[in-house]
């Protein structure tokens, strides 16, 4: 899959770096710091960290500034719900409104739309985004456990039935068996489906899954420049060295 000039799903996993600023100044400082690096492929703007995410005018203004600075670098915009590790609690209707605002701004190249929400809310948003040439990543996060393999595969199958562009699953391991289960699910889905996949186990125990995507089918991994957006993320320079070595 091609997003701007970036080919996702071929070669080594692409590195996404999160922006997690809580103010506009912090967001722009983080962005400028990231842009001094060469070891990443796309930016994820985590707007749930930002205090003004609900101000449509301010959102449009900042989003345009980010887009202009990125030029050919793809921009993924994500609002992560509180129940899946995000910073802010919203009702279902409020979440749908935020996603709608992101789509209508028309600067995102990719958007994260969570699986956990009712289909009657998210299916129209998926279609709206795709009609505006925004690629949809549908995601499932579990910060407590690694579910059974059958449950993880069921989540990924649901995403495929929703006709999204990329499926994403991130779970919390407690044992090495949890790691193996996540990798087995990834490998199986990668070989049986045409849908690009992002998969990872979180935390220190799960770091191995953030560098093994080329073997087990995960097409994007998340690295850091400064602050992380999830436990277990690796500095993007070190992460890129791992990926190049394994490649």
Q: What this model shows, in words?
A:
There is one protein chain. By secondary structure, the chain is of the alpha/beta class. The protein has a single domain, classed as Aldolase class I (TIM Barrel). It has helices spanning 24-35, 56-70, 92-105, 119-131, 149-161, 176-192, 213-216, 236-246; strands at residues 2-3, 6-7, 14-19, 42-46, 75-78, 110-114, 135-142, 166-171, 197-201, 220-224, 234-235. The active site is at 141 (proton donor/acceptor), 168 (schiff-base intermediate with substrate). GO terms for molecular function: 3-dehydroquinate dehydratase activity. InterPro entries: 3-dehydroquinate_DH_AS (IPR018508), Aldolase_TIM (IPR013785), DHquinase_I (IPR001381), Type-I_3-dehydroquinase (IPR050146). Involved in the third step of the chorismate pathway, which leads to the biosynthesis of aromatic amino acids. Catalyzes the cis-dehydration of 3-dehydroquinate (DHQ) and introduces the first double bond of the aromatic ring to yield 3-dehydroshikimate.
The general outline is globular
> Helix and strand succession?
EEEHEHEHEHEHEHEHEEH
Per the CATH scheme, the topology name is: TIM Barrel
pLDDT averaged over residues? 95
Largest sheet: 9 strands, parallel
* Class from helix and strand fractions: alpha/beta
GO molecular function, one term: 3-dehydroquinate dehydratase activity
Pfam family, one: DHquinase_I
Active site: 141 (proton donor/acceptor), 168 (schiff-base intermediate with substrate)
Subunit structure: Homodimer.
């Amino acid at each position: 899959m091609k997003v701007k000039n970036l080919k996702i799903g071929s070669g080594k996993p692409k590195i996404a770096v999160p922006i997690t600023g809580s103010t506009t100044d912090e967001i722009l400082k983080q962005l400028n710091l990231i842009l001094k690096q060469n070891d990443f492929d796309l930016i994820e703007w985590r707007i749930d960290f930002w205090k003004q995410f609900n101000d449509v005018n301010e959102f449009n203004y900042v989003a345009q500034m980010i887009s202009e600075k990125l030029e050919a670098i793809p921009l993924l915009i994500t609002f992560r719900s509180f129940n899946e590790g995000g910073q802010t609690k919203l009702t279902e209707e409020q979440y749908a409104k935020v996603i709608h605002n992101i789509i209508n701004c028309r600067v995102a190249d990719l958007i994260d739309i969570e699986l956990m929400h009712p289909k009657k809310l998210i299916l129209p948003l998926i279609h709206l985004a795709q009609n505006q040439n925004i690629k949809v990543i549908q995601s499932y996060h579990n910060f407590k456990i690694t579910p059974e393999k059958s449950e993880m595969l069921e989540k990924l199958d649901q995403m495929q039935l929703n006709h999204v562009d990329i499926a994403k699953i991130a779970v919390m391991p407690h044992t090495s068996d949890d790691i193996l289960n996540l990798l087995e699910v990834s490998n199986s889905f990668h070989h049986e489906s045409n849908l690009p996949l992002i998969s990872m186990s979180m935390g220190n125990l799960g770091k191995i899954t953030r560098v093994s995507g080329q073997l087990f089918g995960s097409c994007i991994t998340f690295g850091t420049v400064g602050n992380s957006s999830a436990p277990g993320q690796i500095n993007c320079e070190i992460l890129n060295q791992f990926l190049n070595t394994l490649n």
